[in-house]
Queue: 2 jobs
Job 1
Amino acid sequence: MPRVLLFNKPCGVLCQFSPSAGKRTLKDFIAVADVYPAGRLDADSEGLVVLTDDGKLQHAISDPKMKLPKTYWVQVDGEPDEVALRRLRSGVDLDDFLTRPAGARRIDQPSGLWERIPPIRVRKSIPTSWIELELHEGKNRQVRRMTAAAGYPTLRLIRSRIGPWTLDGILPGQFRLVDHQQLRI
C-alpha cells in the first residue's frame, strides 16, 4: 500500500529534501524515509504539499493531464471586481502560455488562518482581499502571474486542496498520514 503524507508547508521552506545553504527544506519537518513531493510550491507560498512513496501516484497527482483540481487561497492587493474575476475564470494570457479556465471567486479571509512568518507587507492606502482559485494545471508561479495580470498582485498564497485532500486540521510545519480509504483520486 502506498504511503501518502499531507504537509502544511510554511512560508520560506523549499519543496525538496536536499540541503540548500541557509534555507529550510522538507527534511527539517518530515523524518519519513522514501517519500517525495508530488508537485511543488514556491518558497514564498504556503500550504498543502502531498508526498508519497509511490511513483505512479506521484505522477498522477502532479500531471496536468490528470486534471486534478488544486485550490488556492490568495490574498491580493486591492478588491477584485467581477471583470477581474471573469478574466481569471476564462484563462489569462501570460505571454508564454494561456492558462486553462479556472474557478475564481471572492472569499472572506479563511477561518482559522495562521499568522504568516514573515508577515505580508501592509499599505494603509490599499485594502487587501481574498480570492479562491481552482486550477487544473500548475505552472511555475502561475497563480501569482495570473492575479498580477488581472491587476491584483498576490501578497499571500496558500494551497488549501489537492484533489480530495485538504489542509484541514494540519498546522504549519506539521503533516499527517492519509488513511488507506482516502487514497483514491
Job 2
Amino acid sequence: MKIIRISGILFTLFVSLIVQGANNAKTSNSTFLKGETLEYKARWGVLTIGHAQTKVDSKVYMVQSHPCFKIEVKGQTNGLASLFYVKDSWNSYIDTSDLITHRTSRSIREGHYMLDEMANFDHKNKRVAVSILDQKQQKYNDPKYYDVPDNVCDLIGGFMLMRLRDFSDLKRNDTIKVNGFFEDKSYEMNIVYLGKEIINTSRGKVRCLVLRPIMPDNKLLNGKHSVDVWMSDDDNQILMRIQAKMFIGTFNIELDC
C-alpha cells in the first residue's frame, strides 16, 4: 500500500513544491494565464504511471465579491499503476489583481482513502476556514479556523505567483523563502536557486531555471536535497520537470506536449 501514498505525494509535489509569494513579481498582469491548459506525464523509472493537468479557466469567477481566476490541477494513475489507484484534483480561486487566494478545494482519492476539503481565506482577519465533507451525510462539517500571515496563498496560487517572479535578482545558491497554507497549518520552506540549465523536453531543448526545495525529514524522499524543479527561462516560466529521488527509485513529472 505504500506505493499509493508515494503516487499521491508525487502529484502533491506537482502543485506544492515551488510556491512563492508575490515579492519580486515581474508584473501584476497575469492575463496570459487565462485559458491555458498544460498536460504532464508522471514516470517511475522508465514506466509511465500517470498523468496530470493544469487548467486556467477562461472565465472570471466572483468569490467573496472578488473577481478570481479559477485554476484546476488534476493527477491520476493509469496502466499498471491503476492497481494503486490515485485520482486527485485541486481547485483554486485566485484574485485577478493581486493573485492572493480566496478559496481552494481538494478532492483526494488514493486507494481506499477519500477526502473532500474546502478552504475559504479571510485576508482581512488573517485566518482560513477549513471544512471537510462528511462522506455519509454528503455535506460539509462546520469549519475549523486557522491563523495565517498577511496575503497567504494556497499551494496552487503560490505556484502561479512563482511564474511571475523575476529571477534576475538571484545568484546561484541564493535561497527563496516560501510561505503558504496547506491542510491545517501555515508553513515555511526554503528553495535554493541553482542557476540555469538546458534540458531535453518534448518541446526540444529548453533553457530552464533550476530550483531545489529543501525537504523536511520523511520516510519517502531520499534526503533534504532529493527534489529538483525546472521552469522554462522565458516570459511564461512554465513548469517543465520535477524530479524526486525516493528510497524506492526516481519519480519524474514532465511536460507532455
